[in-house]
Design brief:
Two copies of one chain form a homodimer. Chain A is built from eight helices and ten strands. By secondary structure, chain A is of the alpha/beta class. Chain A starts with a strand and ends in a 10-residue tail after the last strand. Chains A and B meet through helix 6 and helix 7 of A and helix 6 and helix 7 of B.
């Protein structure tokens, strides 16, 4: 059964929440081993420890041949501060591992995909245990790690795919972490952003996505009230900007900052780790 | 005396505020003519009229040889939706005009600078009349238009310079509107963003600014309270990311979303319109 190392490249989670995840795994996935790196519980300003502490923990997890998967504990913000250094220091032990997470962890998933290291996978994270219905989200990720493919995003087909938070992917564009996405289906989701900011992010992102096979829109949730309505919904925004750059808009993706968030292995789903 | 056309590529202002700006100009800059395009007062969802209405008004102002300057009424959001079409339709009458604004108007200033059309100038806008001390800001822009150079940002030197809102410039990167900034001093300011978002924007922006002469940081104001302190101030954030990309950090710039916001003609200040 798989051995899973958990670290927090962005923000910390609590030991109590880690214990809940461990109990769930113990009850439903006997034989699976979860190892929460103590760095998950550090705090340094916004982050789960300093850049050096977060980088070291990630490298310890990824470069240890005893682990089959590295599971990112939680999003928030901070992975982009260590991603480039991490890529430079990952060794052969990282090569066949699954790396799972979403949201801010997308900086690492994207950088790993660009560097062709391991199997980056958009998937729920341990801290999702705090969400309403979060047990199902955590169970979905644990199930995927143990070989169950029922949690895959349902539109996945013969095209290679990736899934990102909209802000995360927009910020990756043009950086040394950005993977080539030609011929990929690109899924994006967003949370807690005004619709004008979503429009602005699509202005930026679509300018960088020429040559993709198409874009799918995940859930855009918890949009804050603005002083006036934006005048377009998120799907109309996505269609508008895709249209300006001749990017096929392919409809909805079953991803988002919620308990229903489905799994998207980067690349071809059938080639993901464990298949 | 200069004739100034005012339009609103982003969000609307009120007729009352326009009248206050006109009274100020009439009292202190006799002979200057301000023409508020009626589009300034339109409203369509988030914007000062539809994309087509905002584009048409901008073209009417910029392509009318009777005007010496185009002054953008207000920021907010929306200029990026019409900038590319505007650039394609500007004619020779736009070539020698000054274009003044900041914040969201930076999409147009950047695109004009890239296309070498007119004289883009970071400067206060008519809607700044609403700020505390806003009369001084509006007076500074009117003074500059009428030939007074005392409002220039004080660090301007023999290097070409530009000034942008941080978010605006970050979103321009890699798009068809982004000017080349090699050997330029780049000034950025921000308002109403969490420090983690400022850090994220610097991660993105500095990856695109290789080859600039240096970065200066304007004011980062109205930072919202987060659930925990970020742990670094904005200058430390700017220094961190400049350091990662070997960009010289040159200190402060006297710009920001406030009444003290100084004037930065894009390029060499001594070559700006009127000198």
């Amino acid at each position: 059964m798989p051995r899973v190392a958990i670290c927090a490249p962005s923000t910390p989670m609590t030991e109590e929440d880690a214990a809940r995840v461990s109990r769930l795994a113990g009850a439903e996935f006997p034989g699976m081993e979860l190892h929460f790196h103590p760095q998950c519980f550090l705090s340094d300003g916004h982050f789960a420890g300093s850049d050096a502490q977060r980088l070291d923990a990630l490298l310890e997890c990824a470069n240890d041949p005893a682990f089959d998967a590295v599971w990112f504990a939680r999003g928030g913000y901070g992975a982009c501060r260590i991603a480039e250094d991490a890529i430079a220091k990952l060794d052969h032990a990282a090569q066949d591992k699954a790396f799972l997470g979403y949201s801010d962890a997308g900086y690492l998933l994207g950088a790993l995909y660009r560097a062709r290291i391991g199997h980056p996978i958009h998937a729920p994270m341990p801290n999702d245990i705090r969400r309403e219905g979060g047990t199902a989200a955590v169970r979905r990720a644990l199930g995927y790690i143990s070989g169950d493919r029922s949690g895959l995003e349902p539109s996945l087909d013969r095209h290679p795919a990736v899934a990102f938070n909209l802000t995360t992917l927009a910020m990756l564009c043009g950086t040394r972490l950005m993977p080539g996405l030609a011929n990929h289906i690109v899924m994006v989701e967003e949370v807690s952003e005004h619709l004008y900011a979503v429009d602005r992010l699509f202005f930026h992102l679509t300018a960088h996505l020429g040559g993709i096979a198409g874009l799918r829109l995940g859930r855009v949730s918890d949009v804050p009230e603005n002083d006036r309505p934006f005048g377009q919904e998120s799907e109309a925004i996505a269609r508008h900007w895709c249209g300006r750059h001749a990017i096929p808009f392919l409809g909805a993706a079953d991803i988002g900052h919620d308990a229903a968030n489905r799994i998207v292995p980067f690349g071809l789903a059938g080639r993901a780790q464990g298949q």
